Amino acid sequence: MMHRQPNHVMTFLLAELGTSGSLDGQQSPDTMLSKKNRLLPLKCEECGSERSVAQIKAGFLARVGSRNART
């Protein structure tokens, strides 16, 4: 749907979450991000370890429309 290679999307997500991971044959990440109250725990499906990650406050905002010319 996003018109991006799965490896590209996975690399971006892992960099934003500050963690490591891999894709299996079904191209699913080996970590699960859930929400418990106000915390976002990231759990490894392989070893079961869990840690809290920070919520992303603001994402990329695309500028649309005309731009002012630089002088």
UniProtKB/TrEMBL annotation:
Key words, A-Z: Initiation factor, Protein biosynthesis
List the SUPFAM superfamilies. Answer: Translation initiation factor 2 beta, aIF2beta, N-terminal domain, Zinc-binding domain of translation initiation factor 2 beta
Q: Which GO terms describe its biological process?
A: formation of translation preinitiation complex
**Could you name the Gene Ontology cellular component terms for this entry?**
eukaryotic translation initiation factor 2 complex
Return the InterPro entries for the record: IF2/IF5, Transl_init_fac_IF2/IF5_dom, Transl_init_fac_IF2/IF5_N, Transl_init_fac_IF2/IF5_Zn-bd
Cross-referenced Gene3D superfamilies: Translation initiation factor 2 beta, aIF2beta, N-terminal domain
Q: Domain named Translation initiation factor IF2/IF5: which ranges?
A: 1-50
Q: Cite a single GO MF annotation.
A: translation initiation factor binding
To which protein family does this belong? Belongs to the eIF-2-beta/eIF-5 family.
PANTHER family attached here?
A: EUKARYOTIC TRANSLATION INITIATION FACTOR, EUKARYOTIC TRANSLATION INITIATION FACTOR 2 SUBUNIT 2
Protein name per its UniProtKB record? Translation initiation factor IF2/IF5 domain-containing protein
Lineage, broadest ranks: Eukaryota, Viridiplantae, Streptophyta, Embryophyta, Tracheophyta
